[in-house]
């Protein structure tokens, strides 16, 4: 799933979705492999649908939905905005009570759980999955069946103060992991930074900062043909040791405050590097003030043995099986994936498009910093779509905090995580 606070037009064009008739192969439960949703009818959309959306997306979507209503006279899109912090419980309660909306914005790490409960409608075959970033598309898939589409995406890259990097002897960010650590140290010794790089010292969501290093080493969080968790692999262990070394060597702050101070620390030069998503660009520029955008840059995650990879997040669009207006729900989903609509949505929300061709729009193509995110999305990866992921990853975050703050043995920590994961299971 993406951050908890967001920063972030007519019928579907053939460039985004192609239409071919196909019926549903089966309807035997939420996670049967290979299901295909029944074809959506042709022609204009009809009737009323209700959609749930979280955060700023819920506030801004009604404005965009007016274009769909204008192109489909008589259609009404009722958007209900709900807070991120209560969204998960609201969804599970609605699923249990069979009172779900027609469609919804769904966090990527919730897909396995909701599909496992049999609540989601499989994606119709006429939606061309190849138009989306591969890592994002995989977040919609549970046991080989796609349930929805990626709506918008985000990934994490390296933010660094380019002006301070020059003082440290660097004209550009390093391209490998060893170079990142050397540059972070030089930021302290030569550029006057208190901490070389801000890394999350465990706690909720810290796995999202660690895993880019592991994926860049070739890590796979599943094994046995994708049927089991795989936390204690050599690649994850190597990344965890590397991550720990920033704290044991005094390059990152193991006692960083629970409430992040990333923006002011970055603007002041106290912490001149960190890893985060695209919403942080406007955040640091606001704190840094006039001209600050010329004092920093972004770069891909420094490569490991398998290249450069990162975490892909964002949110998906899913249609619920209980919908009373399935065709219009899916037509709205299809429309939201049109490249032109995606580009307009970016202008309204700054949510990055999930459709690759939308990145050719001048509003995105002209921004060199955004281009780095677009390039990183080509290799970014998502966690497994197991329904128990949220439960299991909490243990990962807990053990990582012990590794960073108390110097616990990374191998023992990952063994504990693996044992817990094996005990909980995948939920399949």
Automatic annotation (TrEMBL):
List where Polar residues composition bias occurs. Answer: 416-428
GO BP, sorted A to Z:
maltodextrin transmembrane transport; maltose transport
Query: What residue stretch is flagged as signal peptide?
Result: 1-21
Q: What GO cellular component entries does it have?
A: ATP-binding cassette (ABC) transporter complex, substrate-binding subunit-containing
SUPFAM superfamilies, A to Z = Periplasmic binding protein-like II
> What is the name of this protein?
Carbohydrate ABC transporter substrate-binding protein (CUT1 family)
Q: Which GO terms describe its molecular function?
A: maltose binding
CDD domains for this protein? PBP2_MalE
Q: Which Gene3D superfamilies match?
A: Periplasmic binding protein-like II (3.40.190.10)
Which InterPro entries does the UniProt record give?
SBP
Pfam short name (any one): SBP_bac_1
Family label: Belongs to the bacterial solute-binding protein 1 family.
Where is region (Disordered) located?
407-428
* Keyword annotations: Signal, Transport
PANTHER family per the UniProt record, alphabetical: MALTOSE-BINDING PERIPLASMIC PROTEIN, MALTOSE_MALTODEXTRIN-BINDING PERIPLASMIC PROTEIN
